[in-house]
Every structure is written in structure tokens, then in C-alpha cells.
Amino acid sequence: METQTETTERKSVYFFWDYDLTEEDVRAILRGENEVEKIWVMSRILQSALWNDIWKFLTLKDVRNNFEKIQWRTPFLKELWAHALEVWSHV
Fold first, then answer.
1. Domain assignment of residue 2, yes or no
2. 35-48 and 23-31 are packed helices; what angle lies between their axes, rounded to 10 degrees?
3. By the 8 A CB rule, do 37 and 29 touch?
4. Residues 6+ positions from 41 with CB-CB distance below 8 Å
């Protein structure tokens, strides 16, 4: 009689469409020590994730502390986030 091996399906996050990363993979990178990987993940989240999903992974402090390191896809996105951070700092 054959034994069935249970396979665990990995569900990749949509904002890493070109990599096989799960939510846990993303969280592990963000908790890790590799700053280059952290900035890469933050950059992708800020520019490709839906609004509510951004805040599942990042905090406002994360964005503020790493703002100048983020690899912004366009100057417009950088300006938009800079404006948001300034507005939020006055609230």
C-alpha cells in the first residue's frame, strides 16, 4: 500500500509576482539582519502592494527610518510618499 505524502502548498504574495515568496518569507526578511534584502522587500511592498497590505508588513516608523534607502520606481512615488510622511507627522 502506498503512503500519501501531504504537500503543503506555498502561496506566494502577489506583490512578488516574479519570486516565490510567501507572507512568512517576507516577514522573515523584514525581521532579518540583511539590510539589502530588507530594503528590497520594503521597496516592493511600498510600490506594488495594496494599501491595506502595506500596513500588514510595515509600520510608519519603518517607512520613515528607511525612506532615503527605498528604491523608488519613479520620482513621483517618492514625492507622494514624502508628502504623506510630512502630513502624517503633523497629525
1. no
2. 130
3. yes
4. 26, 29, 30, 57
Cβ count within 10 A of residue 40: 15
Instruction: Tell me the per-residue pLDDT of 69-78, one tens digit each, with 9 for 90 and over.
Output: 999 999 999 9
Which tens digits make up the pLDDT trace of 58-71? 999 999 999 999 99
pTM above 0.85, yes or no: no
Instruction: Report, as ranges of residue numbers, the positions in the chain whose pLDDT lies below 50.
Output: 1-7
User: How is residue 63 written as a grid cell?
Assistant: 517607512
Range of the domain at 64: 14-89
Domains identified in the chain, total number? 1
